[in-house]
Amino acid sequence: MQSSLNELAELLAERAGRQFDFSFRQELKVMINYWRVRLIVDSLNSRPNDRKWFSKWLELSLIEVNFSQFPDFPECPIMRTEFKIPKSIRANGKLYDFSGKLNKMTVISVHEPYEIKVLMSGRFTGSYLRMAVINDYGFVFNALNLPGISIKLIPEDIQEFQLAMSQSLSPVPCFTDDEPYFVTEDLKQRIVQAIIATEFRMPAIPETKLQEIQINNERNLQQS
Fold this sequence. Notes:
Distance between the termini: 14 Å
Number of strands: 7
Mean pLDDT: 86
Number of helices: 6
Largest sheet: 7 strands, mixed
């Protein structure tokens, strides 16, 4: 069973001798999320092919917007994501691992608005689907009757991503801190060790101790 955010915070709070301090455990959750982002970026900068272990799919509905929002553009149907796209972790020079139609096969390339304006004036490429991200909303050009888009990204803020998931075309219940935390098990250990070494300035927890805690958590879950 994968560790939850609450279990990681309780483990760290116990290490600091403050396991009954609720406010301290909430602060630890912020630290855990911070170190999650930092260690993912470090990991991907050295091993870009590991992106598949961290990225998540999201399906977003589209609504039609007024063309007047884009003066001087060639006139075309423009759709916008109904809700904001959650921020993605910046690593390897990628914004998204995929952006495209709901079939998750047809790519919609992401550009700056001024780039789209130039591309739309092309004789052979002017009618292609293209997307610009403005203030965290996705604007899709040449998108007549397109119901939604698929995005694959590495979420920067887990709560923000879960909110987007609850608003998506395939909504899921809101995430709780008792569910498996959004990171691989080996990275969870590195997060714990990093917080102990830098924030607490204490000796690291032996890996055997971490494994023992993991086994105990699984046993407690089976008995409950």
